[in-house]
UniProtKB/TrEMBL annotation:
The keyword Ribonucleoprotein does not apply. Pfam families: NTP_transf_3. One of its GO terms (molecular function) is nucleotidyltransferase activity. This is NTP transferase domain-containing protein. SUPFAM superfamilies: Nucleotide-diphospho-sugar transferases (SSF53448). Residues 3-147 form the MobA-like NTP transferase domain. PANTHER family: MOLYBDENUM COFACTOR GUANYLYLTRANSFERASE. Keywords: Transferase. InterPro entries: MobA-like_NTP_Trfase, Nucleotide-diphossugar_trans.
């Protein structure tokens, strides 16, 4: 599998801060997620975002238009994907290692599905904590066409057969606000 780390968000709830470059226990968020994907066995990792999100050992590309949202980011990364499965990860996951491990365990179960997506305790799909058939992702973009900037990412999965994997909110949590970062820092130190 290959991994795509989405790092081009505006960080509005963080006061416009580039979340990819925020630090948790001394490590940039984007580096934590990229390293978790690499440790999980990703053959290649592509980061989609500004130059500030670049990480060692990873390809980097910018979505078109910049800030165009997750669909634009995935579309920009797909030319770099070479394997049958693509793990989509947000750069601000609080527990990227647990997310990657959970996805891989589920993928190895071998069901006939187009992808696996984590679902939190409130039954919200965590689209950027999932692993998907690369073929299905490409088909999804064929259906959506080229004008997808700003559209919700769930449209990409409208025709997909997905296995939903329920997880605790703590596993699916990301870092959207200063309070989230403070909580993640506390948990990381315990």
């Amino acid at each position: 599998f290959d991994a795509v780390v989405l790092a081009g968000g505006a960080g509005r709830r963080m006061g416009g801060v580039d979340k990819a470059t925020l630090r948790l226990s001394g490590e940039r968020l984007v580096d934590r997620v990229a390293a978790a994907a690499q440790r999980a066995g990703a053959a290649g990792v592509t980061i989609v975002g500004p130059e500030s999100a670049a990480a060692d050992g990873c390809a980097r590309v910018r979505e078109d238009p910049p800030g165009g949202g997750p669909l634009a980011a995935v579309a920009a990364a797909l030319p770099f994907v070479q394997h049958d499965w693509t793990m989509l990860l947000s750069c601000d996951l609080q527990q990227p290692v647990a997310v990657c491990e959970t996805l891989l365990v589920s993928l190895r179960e071998g069901d006939d599905v187009d992808g696996i997506v984590l679902v939190d305790q409130r039954m919200r799909h965590q689209w950027l904590a999932g692993v998907y058939s690369t073929r299905m992702l490409r088909r999804g973009f064929e259906v959506l066409g080229d004008d997808h900037a700003g559209l919700p990412i769930k449209l990409l999965f409208a025709q997909a057969r997905l296995r939903e994997v329920p997880v605790a909110d703590a596993i699916a949590a990301d870092i959207d606000t200063p309070d989230d970062l403070a909580q993640a820092t506390r948990l990381n130190l315990e």
